[in-house]
Amino acid sequence: MAKRIDVDDLNVYYGSFLAVEGASINIAPLSVTAFIGPSGCGKSTVLRTLNRMHEVIPGGRVSGQVLLDGEDLYGPGVDPVNVRRTVGMVFQKANPFPTMSIYDNVIAGYKLAGARKSKDEMDDIVERSLAGANLWEEVKHRLARPGAGLSGGQQQRLCIARAIAVEPSVLLMDEPCSALDPISTLAIEDLINDLKNSYTIVIVTHNMQQAARISDRTAFFNLASVGQPGKLIEYDDTSKIFSNPNEKATEDYISGRFG
Amino acid sequence: MSEPGLPTAPTVTPPAPFSGRRRAVSTSALVGVRLPSWAPYAAGAGAIGVALGLKALFGWEGWGTSFWTAAVLFVIGFTAWSFSVEGRRRAKDRFASTLIYASFVAAVVPLLLILFYIGVQGFSVFSWDFFTADMAGVTSRQEGGGLYHALIGTLELVLIASVIALPIGIFTAIYLVEYGRGTFARAVTFFVDVMTGVPSIVAGLFIYTFLLLGFGMRPFGFAGALALAILMIPVAVRSSEEMLKLVPRELRESSYALGVPKWRTILKVVLPTAMSGLITSSLLAIARITGETAPLILLVGYTTRVNYNPFSGDMATLPMMVWDQIGKRAGTTSSDLTTARAWGAALTLVLLVLILNIGARLLARLFRPKAQ
Asked: Does the pLDDT of residue B13 top 80, yes or no?
């Protein structure tokens, strides 16, 4: 199920502006990879290229290769819709569909895409996904209630349930805990630890302790100055990055001397 | 900061312990002197009193001069009073508040007067018969008659115009918000804006030239509905566009991220989320055309009988009935009958728009995303 990702010499543009230059990363299946770096360094931008969400923004385009188990996501004839079914995503802000119930939110990936499922199948998927997101016990008695009525942390876990309901191979998370309190953050981190057994996870975070706690590998992005393209400075085992990084810039950032 | 070459300024003396030196009345630096709460009323009464005195003194005719004198006196006097007691900032605040309240009253009073007057004048003629009878054979000297024929005409025309214009409007808005990029989208927006400003009679003339003159037809209901649709489209586009823009980008993105194609995202996420607003915007567009008269004079004509068929023959509409009944007033001594019927039709028109608006609000509430 879980797939590996190989990014090769990726340049990401917004219109004519080069936002990220020459990023190359190899992400192993069933691992957690954290992207860290100062604001504007392009870590979210790179994340969004991994399921072709970058091109949703007008003017967004890339050059270079992103290989998913050896298959180029940007190759000719590749349908971004199919890419996104394989590579799921959780956003910074919990955003359950406001018109839908908890149940419908979880099953949204199928319903919105028009897939026909029997009631039993759907019930099964909903329970499995909510259980997978550690939310089942809290909401099983109110599945018909609107998803927007849950707390912030519950909404984010609902979004994770929604993302894993379509059984992707890779799960991308763009600062999933930045709007949550420490307890909800802990719940999400525990969840990421569980999900690691089934999915390849890439997470963008501003919280370095979080990166140190949950990730196997860490990529540090930086930019020389505003207006310059962001670059991948260092990519290594998390323990190495946080104890003995090769690059001076990484060490400065980790130790809080800048950024 | 002292400039080089100049003798250094003496160091600033530390503020003296507060002694009530600056403001005689105030006991704290945080409490400013305020006019009493009755001050605006006193100033108003004073201004009116002075204006009345001047009226008596100079023997002004009527009330216009006195009214404006009192208004100007109030603005000047009250601001000056505030300035002398409360200081410059408060005086500016009082001045601006006075103008804002005055603008509010100037906007709302005529509206309330119109509604009130239409209500009083129109309600006297309301009866069951008034809504179920037409004007066939009812002369301007006769009692009775009704607006059934005009009500049917207005409802049919508005319905046809809505069926034509609302889909075009909403689809155009979807194009502009979801797909439109670059020159073509800008051109569409520009022409929609231009269309918003097209006088209704021009829309009428267009259809008149195109259909009636071009094909040698007699006036008929559908032609009027087409002109109304032309007037409706820009309103529908602009208001629907704003509603669709309110749907957060994150919702679309989270739908894309689930592997949902764009068209299904628009259909299943964007439109349901914006549904409440789209209903409101549609009703605004309908309200815009319900009372439209000018193109109907050219295209639909008027008749005293019920005509259900929009594709043949003149049709009556509520605005045209008002026009017709008021027009019949000239030269008759018993003018009250036609005038009353005109007011009745006008009140019905207002109520129709009101009912549409209330209905839209209820519908919108029904479709609004719920948190609980």
From this structure: no
